[in-house]
Design brief:
single chain; 217 residues; alpha+beta; 3-stranded mixed sheet; 5 helices; 13% strand; globular
């Protein structure tokens, strides 16, 4: 909560709650490179084109960026990734899923192993279901790609790198500018920002307290 910054563009920036004494001794780049090679060999049909499109869209939206040659933080880690395909889904039929838990070696730490998971920051779903029956109207909303709305501090971004090569291109290194889905502390970070937003925003206090009790992400 102390590290949250509300920027001029309206987006919140947050630091990762690291376990200070834990730092990966290896970047996991070779394991990620091997899994990427295996991934590309298995992509069939138009999956490769759609996967390329996801990588390009994330770059254009500022969700990711090309990684600098010199890391800006003390934790450098590459996350393997793969597609999850759900052709029957109404919206996202293919998703890019990252693995922040793979260790460079059995004795080393992964990125997830270096994070504090933090306390639960959202009410129990059971409580929300009960409260939803106490009012005549129930309003339901969804924050699109909620984790990706939160900006990572530059000093934390190199812990969330990944390797990929788009069709007819060479290997490139990218890193996340936003909080990635699948990070050990991502739910706590999102919940902390939501709580911070409600506590610092203007408005009826009873409404803000009600939102705290009924938001579930």
């Amino acid at each position: 909560m102390e590290n949250i910054q509300h920027q001029d563009n309206g987006r919140y920036k947050i630091r990762v709650p690291w376990i200070e004494e834990r730092v990966p001794q290896s970047s996991n780049a070779e394991q990620s490179r091997a899994r990427r090679k295996n991934l590309l060999s298995k992509m069939k049909g138009d999956v490769r084109e759609r996967y390329d499109a996801i990588v390009q869209e994330q770059l254009e939206l500022g969700i990711t960026e090309k990684a600098p040659n010199n890391p800006e933080g003390k934790r450098l880690f590459y996350m393997p990734h793969r597609p999850v395909i759900r052709e029957g889904a109404d919206s996202t039929k293919i998703r890019m899923v990252f693995d922040a838990s793979e260790k460079p070696s059995p004795e080393d730490y992964s990125t997830n192993g270096c994070m504090n998971s933090g306390p639960p920051t959202q009410p129990y779903l059971w409580d929300i279901l009960i409260r939803s029956r106490l009012a005549p109207v129930c309003i339901v909303g969804d924050v699109e790609k909620a984790f990706l709305q939160l900006e990572l501090d530059k000093s934390d971004r190199d812990a969330f790198r990944f390797i990929y090569e788009q069709r007819n291109s060479t290997e490139k290194h990218y890193r996340f500018c936003r909080v990635p889905f699948g990070g050990e502390s991502s739910p706590c970070m999102l919940g902390g920002v939501v709580k911070y937003h409600l506590e610092t925003s203007e408005g009826d206090e009873s409404v803000k307290e009600s939102l705290k009790e009924t938001i579930h992400m």
